[in-house]
């Protein structure tokens, strides 16, 4: 009896049909129909859920800062514009800043776009932002003005908002206006991943945990064969019957056979699909709890690469769209701009930070208070003094030339006294 025959014995004669449906991606609820996978179905796949969560929570947990660039090139931290209060304290009456940014990132990573309505007071001043799920939004162009129109289905109502009344961030886009939906373009990979999970669930649900091969000295009559299958399924199949002793009759012999999902390459296939989804979202595997190839030495570097190559493009998209859509031309002209504070994401471990601080302090480009500020510590008196190494002098200064001349004369005197 080969492997498939054994599976047929435990699962029944319909196992061939089940395998065919599984390989065709049809044995999955909500995706057994032609067309694309929707957001709700995609989030049922653990790999998609994990990637979207990592990206959303990372950006949502990063502070948004308001700066003003001075005429001399320096910048100062400010908090006196409405956009700062919205993004830093309260975007609307129902959401915290974290929840707002998180929901926008979920929409971006599932639908490729984030659309929020600008909330204004009676004077037309911006006072808040309210995000909408991407499936509720349709973007069209007014045939008369050629301007973008955002049609938002809010329950029984529909809002038709012009471009200047929405805050729209698009992801990867072909036209630069409407972003591409990741789940739409990789729906086949998501369907296959969901099929593997469904297969694994059915494998354990229907599997006989006291599994093995039953051998008889001769052939079984049809009635006896059907009775054996029925009794075996009732008494020994399913997790509830795990470990029960098997009672046989008529000279039958039971040979233990452990059927593992790995034997059907289920685990390997699921890992490949997980890597495929992580590749799409550009998320390191260790951040979605796959530590097969992770070590203590490379996790820190992979985390830094995640910030540099995955999150920095997202921060840039947000910053440019905020500065373009939420700041007025006069505010931008005055030097105001928004920037995410990513310093904490780029920080290394305590030893690496201490080494970097020591280098900056020794060579004079960090003061004590600069270091304490980076470590969220209060400043100390006289902590703004910068040090200069005693043996370092500015090239070309008179003192440097005099010191060099004096040193040359001293060397010459020593050589002359030795008679050389």
Walk across the major sheet and give the strand order: 2-1-11
Q: What is the straight-line distance between the termini?
A: 99 Å
Q: What class, by secondary structure content?
A: alpha+beta
- Tertiary shape: flat
In short:
The protein has 420 residues and is α+β, with helices and mostly antiparallel strands.
Outline the secondary-structure elements:
Blueprint: H1 3-11, H2 15-23, H3 39-42, H4 46-60, E1 64-69, E2 75-78, H5 82-88, H6 97-111, E3 113-120, E4 126-132, E5 137-141, E6 148-154, E7 157-162, E8 166-170, H7 182-185, H8 187-206, E9 212-215, H9 222-236, E10 253-256, H10 266-281, H11 296-325, H12 329-333, E11 336-340, H13 343-346, H14 350-362, H15 368-374, H16 398-417
Antiparallel strand pairs: 1-2, 1-11, 3-4, 3-8, 5-6, 6-7, 9-10
Helix pairs in contact: 4-6, 4-10, 8-10
Model description:
- This protein is an alpha+beta fold.
- Among the domains are: 11-116 and 174-207 and 263-346, no CATH class; 208-258, no CATH class.
- It is 46% helix and 15% strand.
- It is built from 16 helices and eleven strands.
- It has helices at 3-11, 15-23, 39-42, 46-60, 82-88, 97-111, 182-185, 187-206, 222-236, 266-281, 296-325, 329-333, 343-346, 350-362, 368-374, 398-417, and strands at 64-69, 75-78, 113-120, 126-132, 137-141, 148-154, 157-162, 166-170, 212-215, 253-256, 336-340.
- The strands form four sheets. Strands 2-1-11 form a three-stranded antiparallel sheet. The protein has a three-stranded antiparallel sheet with strand order 4-3-8.
- A hairpin with a 5-residue loop joins strand 3 and strand 4.
- Helix 4 (46-60) crosses helix 6 and helix 8 (187-206) packs antiparallel against helix 10 (266-281).
- The longest helix is centred in the C-terminal third of the chain and has 30 residues, at 296-325.
- The protein is flat.
